[in-house]
Amino acid sequence: MNFENQGVIKRLADQYGPENLTVVLGNGEANGVEVFAETVTEGDPSYAGPLAGVALKIPVYHVLEEEVLSEVPNPLREEKLQLSSLVIDVESMHQVLQAARDKI
Amino acid sequence: MQKGKKIIAIGERDGVPGPVIAECLEGAGYEVVFQVTECFV
Question: Residue A98 belongs to what domain range?
Answer without folding.
Answer: 3-102
